[in-house]
Automatic annotation (TrEMBL), chain A:
InterPro entries: ABI. The lineage of its organism: Eukaryota, Viridiplantae, Streptophyta, Embryophyta, Tracheophyta. This is (wild Malaysian banana) hypothetical protein. Involved in regulation of actin and microtubule organization. Part of a WAVE complex that activates the Arp2/3 complex. It comes from Musa acuminata subsp. malaccensis. Belongs to the ABI family.
From TrEMBL, chain B:
Keywords: Coiled coil, Cytoplasm, Cytoskeleton. GO terms for cellular component: cytoskeleton; SCAR complex. It comes from Musa acuminata subsp. malaccensis (Wild banana). It is found in: Cytoplasm, Cytoskeleton. GO terms for biological process: actin filament organization; cell motility; regulation of actin polymerization or depolymerization. Binds SCAR. One of its GO terms (molecular function) is identical protein binding. This is (wild Malaysian banana) hypothetical protein.
Length: 302, 84
């Protein structure tokens, strides 16, 4: 095989394989041609032994020819076997090379498929991540800044427990405020003089309206009126009822015109949080559409 | 004379027998070698058949793998948007 490659160095791989197959075919043809030659030689020897007088010489010649013919046949057969084996080994080598190439292609396809599957999985995971919802309601920064400007921390020591809870949060967290914080801020803003201002109001006119209402309330009722915080404290049970019973009646413009007595207070007097109609929806109402009942909710005094 | 003739006949018979034995030996050797050649041919045929069968099986496997690869590549070429 190496001799073939050295002799035909300029030949291509296909040409070398063609040459190899040609030699095999030639050797096989020669082996096939041996059969009629041996048949003709056997007939000639038989005729000459029968018709010739020197039978011993014919016999000796026949023996020599038989030996040489047998050696020749074995030689041809060996050549054919060698050529066939060489051809078979070359074919096996080619097939193993092709198998390696196919395996590499397979590996490439598997790699590509794995990559595609991974990318698809990542995309699905990303889409799954985007659909998550946060536990707390988070307000945007602009709204929270407005709330911070409007809300004021009371100077006195009487701090609403709700406020205490809210202020326990880190002051630096301006980006996200919890619901409890907004509730506390709303209450705080109410106690400071704008009783019904929401923590974050989208309508700029609402605070003005609230102040006007407050003044109206003050003008209608000559009796001094306590701030809303006191009422809330009463609702929480921190202040005695006797002190605030009269004031309750004075602060209720929509309710009974007469000042309420302790009797009515004892019989489940209720504190109504007044909200003017002209006032726009508070931030809380925008988030809690169901809390319309909260507006008119009546705080029962224990 | 008769005895000499008899002796020559015995010698000739002896020679003939010897020659016959030689011929038979020669024929036996030839036939033995032909039988060995025949056995070699049978063995060669069996091994070649086995090797060709293995080669055929390998070729079938490679053909199937190539068909699978061809289908995969054709699917990719027909639907490139899936992989974009």
């Amino acid at each position: 095989m190496q001799q073939w490659r050295s002799e035909s160095g300029a030949m291509t791989f296909d040409e070398v394989s063609m040459e190899r197959s040609k030699t095999f075919v030639k050797a096989l043809q020669e082996l096939k041609n041996l059969r009629p030659q041996l048949y003709s030689a056997a007939e000639y020897c038989e005729k000459s032994y029968l018709h010739s007088e020197q039978k011993q010489m014919v016999l000796d010649n026949l023996k020599n020819y038989a030996v040489r013919a047998l050696v020749n046949a074995i030689d041809h057969l060996g050549t054919v076997a060698y050529k066939l084996t060489d051809l078979f080994e070359q074919q096996m080598l080619d097939i193993s090379t092709i198998e390696m190439k196919i395996s590499s292609l397979n590996e490439r396809t598997f790699t590509c498929q794995a990559y595609v599957d991974k990318e698809g999985l990542n995309q699905l995971q990303m889409s799954a991540r985007t659909s998550r919802h946060h536990k707390h309601y988070i307000l945007p920064d602009s709204v929270c800044n407005d709330v911070q400007n409007k809300s004021h921390i009371p100077a006195d020591g009487n701090v609403n427990p709700i406020q205490a809870k809210s202020h326990s949060h880190a002051p630096g967290k301006s980006t996200s405020k919890t619901l409890s914080w907004h509730l506390a801020s709303e209450v705080n803003s109410a106690s400071n003089g704008s009783p019904l201002t929401a923590p974050c109001t989208q309508d700029a006119k609402a605070p003005k309206v609230n102040s006007e209402v407050f003044h109206l309330l003050v003008a209608e009722e000559p009796a001094p009126s306590l701030p809303l915080s006191s009422h809330l404290r009463a609702s929480s049970g921190n202040v005695t009822f006797d002190m605030t019973s009269d004031k309750f009646g004075s602060m209720d413009p929509l309710g009974a015109s007469k000042p309420s007595t302790s009797k009515t207070f004892g019989t489940h007097s209720k504190l109504e949080i007044y909200r003017p109609h002209s006032r726009s929806k508070s931030m809380l109402s925008t988030f809690f559409t169901k809390n319309k009942t909260f507006k008119t909710r009546k705080v029962s005094v224990p | 004379m008769a005895r000499a003739g008899g002796m020559t006949n015995a010698v000739n018979v002896g020679i003939a027998v010897q020659a016959d034995w030689e011929n038979r030996e020669f024929i036996a050797n030839i036939s033995l070698n032909i039988r060995r050649l025949f056995d070699f041919l049978l063995q060669f045929e069996a091994t070649t058949k086995g090797k060709l069968a293995a080669l055929n099986e390998k070729l079938d496997v490679l053909e199937h793998r190539l068909q699978v690869l061809e289908v995969q590549v054709s699917s990719v070429t027909t639907n490139p948007s899936v992989f974009n």
